[in-house]
Amino acid sequence: MRIQGPYAPPAVERTGRASGIDAPKATEHSPDVQLASSVQALSGLMQAGGASRAERIARLKGQVASGTYKIDAGRIADKMADEELSRAGLS
What we know:
Blueprint: H1 31-66, H2 73-87
């Protein structure tokens, strides 16, 4: 639908940037550049760990499917207790 007549919006030129406003230049020490470097480093770590995580998940799925996966109830209880003590500020 197109609005015409006295209520029509003004024509807009799409340039990809606001007219009359220049974006600040990113320097080596600007927060934008530092954040971009951090994001790149984190992305690299996630990609490197992704393969080993996928392998671990596949291995665990196989163990569950075959009935050989063993749950260590004591370890789970210890982790749960540690978590609650930490939340309460007691650890």
